[in-house]
Give the backbone structure.
Amino acid sequence: MRKKGEKYVRLRSFDVDDEYEISDCEQKRWSSVLLASIGFSLGVCIVVIGAIVSESFGTQGSIAVTDGFAVEKAQISISMKKPDIIHIVVDDIGQNDLWDSDDLPFQSVSPNIHSMVLNGIELKNYYGQSYCTPARVALLTGKFIHRTGFSYASSHHYGDIEIFVDSNYSVPIDPTGQSQLLPEFLKSVAGYSTHMIGKWNLGHCTEAYLPWNRGFDTFLGYFGDGIDYVNHVSNGESSINLGPDQIEVEVMDFMEYEDEASFSWDAGMKYKNEHTTILFTNAALKRLRKTRETKSSTYIYLAYHGLHDDEQALTHIERDVDLKLWKSLDEFFNYTDRRLNFGKALSILDSEIGLILDYMKEEMHRRDYLIVFHSDNGGSPCARHICGNNMPYRGMKFSDFEGALKVPAFMYSPTLFGKRGIIGRKYRGLMHHVDWIATFLQVAGVPDYHAQLNATTFDSVGHWNALLDVAVSLKSEKYAVRDTIYFSLSDDSYVIRQDNFKLIYGYENDTWYSTKTEYEHLSNCYSGLTDYYLFDLDLDPTETNNLFYHSEYRHIREKLLTAGRNAYSDQAIVFEKTRVLNDDSAYYNSSLAYAW
């Protein structure tokens, strides 16, 4: 861990180990955006081949689009300068990994994160998606994923909804202007400068789809689903053969964009051999120092790599781990190897987030600011290198049970919450990734934010007024702002929550995963059996009692099925998706390909 005195004095640099020397760089030419270059030569992304968008939601299961009880009351809003927003998204961290963990004590492993939960607002019913790309699509579009082509049927598991380094599809750009992303709204409507650090994962098949052309002023990070933590090689196709001579090229997925004048496609290469957790924190601190010197409000989307299951999770940083502490914890909890490595990596991530927290407290206290923290999806107990966990909830990342969808989340602001006496609140309102666009526009004091979000196109609803209203009963709070979440819809399968009931129709079964078992790889963790489920989550939050086949719940089952069918038929768009690298002939006419 970094010493207190050097926390934001300089950017940290690592000694390059011999095994990571890149003396053969000129021979292999590591590419930071190999796919992007190839995509540009092809000139197109895969486009929508079928699109049906209705003028209104289906009559069954409509989404509450009111601000709830607080709108008609105090209309609490920010009257001073718009607050800076630091939006931290962590990867594959589950409900049993942070402040509610039964084997990773927060006092030792994640004290900085826990301190913000204690002094902020915990989001007790916050939901993401079960996959990396759909989670980020929902987050940045403000739309449920069936509206953007990233919903899935159980028979299409994984392959056609994740964006890999070689995927030739992206979140669509709507020529009618209904495809603005979160940073575009904050820029155009609220006047923010917008900056992204970390994992993009929304598509990069032509220049129009890159982050700096979709609302972010600057970018440092990677495009695909995952990379090695230190050498930044893609975790999918780590090498490919190009051209008639079949030249082997290693795929380094890392990119930096500061402005058009200084941009180059290989700008990300200079960060090779820096661990992404440290690198992204340094970049955030650098951006915050620039923010402090400006009068404009800033939005920083800090999408950490950690703790995605990739190689080199502890390379270069294990020396910063308190070995005596972890020996003691291991003796008491008897960790599996992958769980122990997860805990160590988490402790480093927490320390780095602590540096950001310290900077905000000490250097930004004269500005209003808001820190938002949440995971993209649940943990992966069947991972290869580092294992998150979701107990007591059922399921893991990639499934459709609560362990995959319900994720840890909170909001922290000593300036916005502290002055109102809102400390340590537990907000129980039903909330989803899609809701950040509307909520941030409320935070920015945009009075007519509803007018900016066409309810026939966007699903985002604002929770800010409800979050600040502490006089509401728990019962009225829970579904006052949002009552329905469409997690995934296809023509014959649905995952929906409406009020307290959740329907899983035509998807694979999953179980509960103990932290004490070293599970085999992902492919061995699923039953592979498709089934049908209905749960009352208010009474059965861990999904132990399937009500689907109970006759007294038939009307609930039919109500949710009707809502799903209506939403899918009225709103869904469908892509024909491919992965470019499956066809080497795609490169033969590419002069760019020959340059590698």
About this structure: The CA atoms of residues 326 and 344 lie 8 Å apart. Residues 3-44, 46-79, 578-596 have pLDDT under 50 and may be disordered.
